[in-house]
Amino acid sequence: MAATRYRIVPEKSLIWAEATSSLHAIRAESSAIVGHLDADVAADRLAPSSTPCAHVEFEVQSMKSGNRLFDMEVERRLDARRYPLVEGDVRDVAVVGADPGHYQVQGDIAFHGVTKRIGGLVTLTSLDTTTLQIEGSVALDMRDFDITPPNYVNPMFTISVRVVAEREKA
Q: What is the rounded CA–CA span in Å between residue 79 and residue 61?
């Protein structure tokens, strides 16, 4: 039996990146996330026989900090015209602890022409019988993606996500 497909609802989802600099904290965000999750879910838990997979993506230019000059510099450094998308694919999911809905996720992220395997913790919650919410974050280093940050910006940043996905109608 095939897993149930859940489509990401962009207007209810958010991805944000946070970094520090010698000048101020930096936060950029986007609600332009698209993608899907294939899984069998019941009562905030993945079914034990389920082998979930997911694909998410967003356009680099959709990430905005509210500071036009900073956003332009980020787009230039990320070479957003050459590498317009950030894409993520879930490869492995494992239950964490006894609390329902907590998972260790491993996957691939393709960013700035580089693909890396990353891992992090996520929480899955059923909002209703057809809607899921997945939240998580992971710390990354810009240099791992061949990005040289400005001297005043710490190369470590955190990417966080809150995705709302609705079950596709059969």
A: 10
